[in-house]
Design goal:
Length: about 80
């Protein structure tokens, strides 16, 4: 899967950046509409993190409070489904 530089969600444009991160594999910054992914991570983990952060963004926009283990599971499963296409 190619991670895009931006995505659209609910009429909003979210920028996606691969860069070195100190602690996390990635995060969604809702105040700046940005997804950041650790460029040092293996590609498969970058892809999983990208999907994970899309789910985090969807939860933000829909005011849905999914438990983090559910988001983690969905990110893992969806990233594999997309990567294998």
């Amino acid at each position: 899967m190619k991670i895009p530089k931006k995505i659209k969600m609910g009429g909003h444009t979210i920028s996606v950046t691969l860069r070195e991160l100190e602690e996390d594999h990635g995060y969604f910054d809702s105040s700046k509409l940005e997804i950041h992914i650790d460029s040092k991570s293996p590609v498969s983990l970058q892809e999983e993190t990208f999907i994970h952060e899309i789910i985090e963004a969807a939860c933000f926009f829909t005011e849905t409070k999914l438990p983090h283990p559910i988001i983690q599971s969905f990110g893992l499963l969806i990233s594999q489904a997309v990567a294998d296409v």
